[in-house]
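Example record for the data management plan.
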Amino acid sequence: LELARELDDRFWIAMSARGIADIYHENHCVVEELEFVKMELDNFRATGKTTFINHAISDLARANHCNENYSESIRLSQALLDSAATSDDMVLKEKALSLLGLSYLAIDSTDKSFEYYSRLCSLPGATAVDSAYLSVLYLRRNSPADAYRIINNLAASPSLPKPVSHWLNYQYYRSLDSLRPALEMMSEISHDTDNSLKEARRQNLIGTL
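Corresponding structural encoding:
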């Protein structure tokens, strides 16, 4: 980043800021992530490169979501859908739909979240995690048969991270009023959270060396 600044190369300043923001995102340092994403977007805008600008806006929407600025994440993601349609950018469209689904889910707007996850899961780039969220939304909409169909398909999926699997199973057992397995999944979720916090602390300590 410092070298790019010395050269006054706005494109490489933006690329460096993006890389730093991604590291902060992976380590759950969301305030710092937002700071560097803003730097990324400002510098990409100076280059006039539309594709990079659009994906920087996507990064900004993600950072706002992680900072619980859900209304701003939704506003940015809605605009990204229009940009994706104009540029025929399927990756950008999938990112926008995912963030819209997540942000509406975070504010308990089940129907809106369901709308965007349904659209996302009809696309080839949808992931196992996207399907997991859709299954939970089916449960919340009292459509258990559709939810269980997805859950059964995901049961053997190696691409579904364990924390998401534990959360999905908790939602599933809770919908069945199966107290014991639901409590077991809650214990696993607590363990997952502890591990994430330990890893974040470890990474932060490494960064100070």
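Summary line stored alongside the record: The chain is about 80% helix and 0% strand.
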